Amino acid sequence: MTSTAARIATAAGVVCLALAAPVDARADSAAECTAGNFCYCVDTALKAAIDQQVAAIRSVIAKQRSQGKAIGYLSVPLSTIEGSYLPVNAKVAAQVKEQIEDRFGVRAAWVLNPGAASFSLPQGTSGAAYMLMWTRVLEGDDGLAPDFDFVYFVGPADFTKFFGLDGRADMEKLDAYYDGLAKTDTGVSSINKVKFRNYYALRASVAFSLGSHDEWNIVRSINTKRRDADKQAGIVKQLAVFFEGRAVPPGMYEAPIQPGTAGACAVN
Amino acid sequence: MRTVGLALLLVPLVPLGAWTPERAHAWGQEGHSIVAEIAQRRLDTGTLEKIKALLKSEAPDVEAPQVALASIASWADDYRSKHPESSNWHFVDIPYERNTYDPAVDCKRDTRSGDCIINAIERAKVALADCSKPAKERAEALKFLVHFVGDIHQPLHNAERNNDHGGNDVQVTFFGTPMKLHALWDSGIITHTVFSWGTYVERLETTWFPGRDLSGLDGGTPVDWALESHQFARELAYNIPDGSVLADNYYRDSLPVVDRQLALGGVRLARLLKDTLPACQ
Prior knowledge:
heterodimer; A: 41% helix; B: P1 Nuclease; three-stranded mixed β-sheet
């Protein structure tokens, strides 16, 4: 999953997206599994809200698909954790979405950005609940991702472009960026400056995101199902996968990675 | 715009210490009209009625005045010519090298020229939303907003390099015509594309908007808009070759950004007006 709040909650235990009523902290949790058997511990009180939001997001996708567009999914680190900072990440996500749509043509492609505020769940929602929502959106009811044509995983180059780094003293530029940002955004002071610099210089990428790790495995699972569902043309029908703008090589389509949030909950 | 050329002619006539180059700080009238027209087309009837009621105070004898935001979009440039204390309200000079906004430095108030566009937009929003203020004052706030939201989307109103006054001190040739880099972005690229601003609006309506997902693009704050423009200034406007001879390559790269900025300037202005205009009695 890539959801803004999911990343935040999963990693840092802090959920920032908040539009509706707060979630009752004493709510019961239960394992909820998706079509592709990705399971998350989710507050049972949230199930209705998740169902509602999944339906709403599918409706948005359907509207874009009805215009004949290829539909993409953006996987991007969003959480405030270990130097990573949500407000910056949300801007990067929006910028990358716009760049992808411009690249392919705004009338030919549309990208679902899980960092968009309009896709939030009630305040206090856990990262696992967000992951459940985004996994269900991505997989679809049959686990074959019928709504999607490609997935774009955000890499370091996408962040480099946002910060205007040019390969000369980039870490010092990030130090200066932090100092400058602090003059208009008091929230960044909660982030250690060295960690901020090191994160954006060395790690800002899906490779260091819990949610994106899950999304990689979800995409791999979807493509396995697509290949198995059609022995003759299944390979051709796989979801296209991009990493920081370039198509990933064939072997990567079948490579699993460490789970992020999925599987942490005991399934009865 | 910043009319340095004219000012230079006057240099021998004024004491050196008193002279500072007047700065051009606006899309040309074409750009402002484009932004205003795009905004107006996206306003709901209720908001248009509020605007009409406000502007009626300026034409009390007209029985049923119609509203054309494009007609008031460049008023702030005329105001500036009589009110030099508003000169700096049209731009914010964020240094080229820095991609963050420092209000204490970039928007520092100058007693003769004012502060900067970011504060000017905030002030105008507050005035427009305040029903206790006289209609004339709120109408002026409206005219400032229509103008400044346009200006903040012009990349060179948000950046300067080597104290070049947003590219006003940079001479280029564009398809053989000498001009200032700033003027190129104010109007040169627009008028190279079409002759009339109405045609540019139709061009955007038929080629830029159709199919585009505007969610996530229509919001933001003036600081966000300024930094976004600043990024375009760094990546494109200032990316001029040795010799400063600009033609097809520069135009090809810049036009999509000019399109975007004019279109989003209109979309964001419409949203700002909808969100700001109260229902005053």
